[in-house]
Specification:
The complex is a heterodimer. By secondary structure, chain A is α+β, with helices and mostly antiparallel strands. Chain A has one domain. Chain A contains four helices and six strands; from the N terminus they run H-E-E-E-H-E-E-E-H-H. Chain B has two domains: 122 residues, no CATH class; 41 residues, no CATH class. Chain B contains seven helices and seven strands, in the order E-H-E-H-E-E-H-H-E-E-H-E-H-H. In chain B, strands 1, 2, 3, 4, 5, 6 and 7 form a seven-stranded antiparallel beta sheet that branches. Chain B starts with 10 loop residues before the first strand and ends in a 19-residue tail after the last helix. The chains are: A alpha+beta, B alpha+beta. At the A-B interface, helix 1, strand 6, helix 3 and helix 4 of A face strand 1, helix 6 and helix 7 of B.
């Protein structure tokens, strides 16, 4: 499934993303942004400043599961959000802040990898043609998220995931890291 | 939703098939060919679609200067739909059916008469009704051959995919962030690995630092 929630090219991959890969990506972004003080490294090695902004949605399993929609302030640092994760709820959506050089982007990333409500920085310092400037900024944002997603998949598909990354995530959740 | 300002929701596609030579100029010619041609007094109730500029939904004056913001070709799909509100249409048909019955003295009208009445009413009223107009912008990065559709709804995206294919003879394939991850010689092994992964259990107790095996 794409950043837009559209179907992927290979049969069977959608289930994986819809099942848990998208929500684990959101969790990983949250975890890495907190333990790395907002600085994440993409697959290309580029450092990207990312933080969970003013919205975080957590929910349990099943169609009628309770949904915690935490808005305003810094929901990612709240004890309610951490407790919800420890109780088995997963991240369903988050509003992300992303800083590239001096430009700040904001967007809502959902567990099906839908990217919504994208706010682009003022692009007039990039180009005096506003459509070209905004097109370039949109590409920049997608490039960064693609880069982070690839970095996540590399970690997720590596043998070290269960051995190293999962224990670190659990300790972070228990406020030990 | 406009590329020029405000917040955006986007679906991305890559183009399948060979791009035309002399891309931007040729593509603008195709936009002109398939520009929106509907009329506000149209008597048809079906959808009418066509390309318009992003500046104004009434504007179909495409030129390379206006539509091409290298490397982006920017345009929009306008779709007009006309329909008499269903409850009003039913009431009008019932009323005319009764009047026809009174005039002809027939208790029951012949089969198909109700459909004829419906067509008469639509012909009479549709030219007087303003259409519901929707506009969805498209931003095509010709360098990367990637198309961004500024809408998340499947209906709007379906219309764009259909019109895009008709205009440019190229299919739009949804972009998938996994494509990049899975690229390379070990693609098959990675896909296989994806399918045997289990979801993360966060209710498990946190292990001590000593049990951390390292990456």
């Amino acid at each position: 499934m794409g950043w837009d929630g559209s179907e992927g090219a290979d049969e069977g991959r959608d289930d994986v993303v819809a099942g848990f890969l998208g929500r684990e990506f959101l969790l990983w972004l949250w975890y890495r942004s907190e333990v790395g003080y907002g600085r994440l490294q993409g697959a290309t090695g580029e450092e990207i400043d990312l933080w969970i902004d003013d919205r975080l949605v957590l929910r349990g399993e099943g169609k009628d599961a309770q949904r915690f929609d935490l808005r305003g302030g810094a929901p990612a640092t709240s004890s309610a959000a951490h407790a919800a994760l420890r109780e088995g709820r997963h991240v369903s959506a988050a509003r992300l802040g992303i800083r590239v050089v001096e430009s700040e982007f904001s967007c809502e990333l959902h567990e099906d990898l839908t990217l919504r409500s994208i706010k682009l920085p003022d692009g007039m310092d990039v180009d005096d043609d506003p459509l070209r400037a905004r097109g370039m900024l949109l590409d920049d944002l997608h490039d960064r998220l693609d880069d982070l997603y690839e970095a996540f998949c590399q970690v997720r598909l590596a043998s070290g995931w269960d051995r190293a990354e999962v224990p670190r995530i659990l300790r972070w959740l228990a406020d030990e890291e | 939703m406009s590329l020029a300002k405000g917040s955006l929701t986007v679906r991305r596609y890559r183009c399948q098939g060979a791009p035309p030579p002399d891309s931007a100029a040729r593509l603008v010619e195709l936009l002109v060919r398939d520009a929106f041609r509907g009329r506000l007094d149209d008597a048809r109730k079906t959808e009418t679609s066509g390309w318009v500029t992003v500046e104004n939904l009434l504007d179909t004056g495409f030129s390379t200067d206006r539509a091409y913001h290298a490397p982006y070709l920017v345009f929009a799909l306008r779709t007009d739909r006309k329909a008499i509100p269903p409850a009003l249409l039913k009431a009008l048909i019932d009323q005319r059916e009764r009047a026809t019955g009174d005039e002809t003295g027939l208790e029951r009208l012949p089969p198909g008469a109700r459909e004829e009445i419906r067509e008469e009413i639509e012909e009479e009223y549709l030219p007087r009704i303003l259409p519901t107009v929707s506009v969805v912008e498209v931003c095509w990065n010709l360098q990367r051959d990637v198309v961004s559709v500024l809408s998340a709804t499947e209906k709007a995206n379906g219309r764009i995919r259909k019109q895009f294919s008709a205009s440019f003879s190229r299919a739009l394939v949804p972009m998938d962030p996994l494509d990049r991850t899975l690229a390379g010689p070990d693609r098959a092994a990675r896909i296989e690995r994806l399918h045997v992964l289990g979801g993360l259990d966060l209710t498990a107790p946190a292990p001590s630092m000593a049990s951390d095996g390292g990456e």
